Amino acid sequence: MTKSxxxxxxxxxxxxxxxxIEAGRAADGTIGVRDTKLxxxxxxxEFTADAWRTxxxxxxxxxx
Length: 64
Prior knowledge:
alpha+beta; 1 helix; DUF397; DUF397 domain-containing protein
């Protein structure tokens, strides 16, 4: 069964040429991530809320 994600938000770190990602949320709290170049038709990576927080913490700590 395919989950329905809503509230897609584009990354604040988007490239000027339009290459970026969007993140949305499913009713069960799963976070979906997709490539905007595919106009919502490409694959969606799915993360649990805990995995998403861990990923963001890791990215933020690597940036400093």
